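Support reply, case 0932

Customer input (verbatim):
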Amino acid sequence: MNEANWLRNILWALLIIVFVGLVVVSYKIYTSQINKIDFLKEDLGKTYQVLEKTKSQLSETKQETTILTTENKSLAEEVTSQEEHIAKIQQEKENLKGHTEEISSQKEELEATLTETKELFKEQIKLHKLIEEQMEKDFQKRLTIEKTMFVVQEKELNDRIQIAETRLNDLIERNDSLVRDLRKNNEILAELNQDSQYETEIYGKFEKAERELKLKGKIFQLNKMLKENKKLIAQNEKIIVDVAEERQEIGNRLEQTEEELKKERLKFHYNLGLTYDENREYKEALIEYKKALKVDPTDADVHYNIAIIYDEYIPDMKKAVTHYQVYLELSPGAEDAGKVALWLKKAKRELEYGKDI
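Our regenerated output:
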């Protein structure tokens, strides 16, 4: 019984201690909460003040927002416009990029083609130079052969002419001698006929007839020889004429050969100059054109090409004027004569303007 009471007392003591502890803790909690509430009230007052201030600022901000919204709308429209413009620019950029790539590709192809063309052009130039050297050698060789043949043939013809002229002179002298003898015999025969009575008394009829017969035979022989001499003279004269004609023909053939070779050289230098001209190698083109002029200074096309180079690519108005004038003098009826005349006038003005400066 005592133990039960004792346990009960202990239990109540524990309960009281717990209760007191709870009260103390609760009080502390209450005090803490009261402090928190006061702090919160104070903080709430401050928050209310901030809120009021914020509300005022919010109102101002709202107004500003309204303005900004309007501006934003305008800016949005402008941005949209700018975006569209940027899109167009981007599209154009893409197009330009594609076009640039295409141009770049074409440029590479053109550069490759240009390189090949330059190499081909160099090979052509080398070939042309070799051909030129060979043509020059062939020209000199052919000209030398032709001249040598001409000299040999001319010597042979001169010898033939000299022989024929010697024979002709001999025949003419012989013919003159025969003519003199014939005249003399005719005179003797005439005298015999006139002095027939005197001769009959002296020589007798028989002797007279015999003498007349001899004279007539001699005269016949002389006439025959004269005919033969005339025939030989005619033959020798024909030989001389034929030989002279043959010499003239050989000379003409030599001149024709020289003219043909001259045309070949002119054509070669002109075409080579034209090749240089088309490949914008104007200095080399001028060299070939000038070589062509040395062959034939009267070639109008060469003067025309030289004038254009001096007028447009290697400026020298004085030389351009000179070659334009020569072209018009050589080809006054050319289709482009009027156009060239205008170029000449312009070149003269530029030349005079340059002098004034």
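We compared this against your earlier run and they match. Two observations from our side: Confidence is low (pLDDT under 50) at residues 196-203. The first helix runs from residue 2 to 194. Please reopen the case if you see a mismatch on your end.
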